[in-house]
Amino acid sequence: MVLGYIGKDGQRHIKAKSLVGYLPDGDSPFEIASVTKPIAGLLVAKLVEQHVLDYDDPLIDCRPRQTNARCFAGESVKLIHLLTHTAGFPLLPNDLAGSVPDYSQKQLASYLQEFRQSRKPGSKFQYSTVGYAVLEQQINDLPHRPVFTNLLAQLVLDPLGMKNTAVWKRPSGDLTNILSIWLPIPDQNWESVGISSRAPAGIGTRESEKTNARWLFLTR
């Protein structure tokens, strides 16, 4: 466990305690899981600031009375609903049969094809990882723009100096995961896919505690 705090002397301190037989330090990689959600939210804020997006942008143009994954009774889910967990999506897909890291983009697309909203968007809070996966899809569909991972690097992580934040791919080389929240500590068979690949909802994302502390200090 690693703890970062500001002491009475005004300095930043990082303390570590070993739970796995060796002592981690500020450069050791740790899962940050859903801490990536507010980071993804900051990316959307930057795109709104640049007038690329608006919080009230609908995900799609719904037909009258249309209900599917992105519409309820003809009303579209909006970006603000995804960001605030009021879009109507569940925490995780109900067809998740195996481990979370094995859920692929193809499976998500199939799940969303069958999913039907059951209430008016914005009417109820329900914490959702699925919603942030949909958010990534929306950003990836922006015309003439880099994909989500590259935009996140350009507009958020690199400007904040978060150089140690990365997605780790498994020995199989599978990079299709989009809901992978917990992964083992990387060993020699794992490989970082680099700082230009990020994830919106806690998707196998790792960063060092020094970098994470920087994020916390910059947003506190």
Describe the structure.
The protein has 220 residues and is an alpha+beta fold. The protein has a single domain, classed as Beta-lactamase (3-Layer(aba) Sandwich). It is built from 6 helices and 8 strands; from the N terminus they run βββαββααααβββα. Helix 1 packs across helix 5. It is globular. The C terminus is likely disordered.
Largest sheet: 4 strands, antiparallel
Query: What number of domains?
Result: 1
CATH class: Alpha Beta
Low-confidence sequence ranges: 169-204, 213-220
| Separate helix tally | 6
Brief rundown of the structure:
This protein is an alpha+beta fold and 220 residues long.
List its traits.
4-stranded antiparallel sheet; Beta-lactamase; 220 residues; 8 strands; two-stranded antiparallel ribbon; 28% helix; globular; alpha+beta; 12% strand
Secondary-structure map with pairings?
Layout (H helix, E strand, L loop, with lengths): L1 E5 L5 E5 L12 E3 L4 H14 L21 E2 L2 E2 L2 H5 L21 H10 L14 H12 L7 H10 L8 E4 L21 E2 L12 E4 H11 L1
Antiparallel strand pairs: 1-2, 3-8, 4-5, 6-7, 6-8
Helix pairs in contact: 1-5
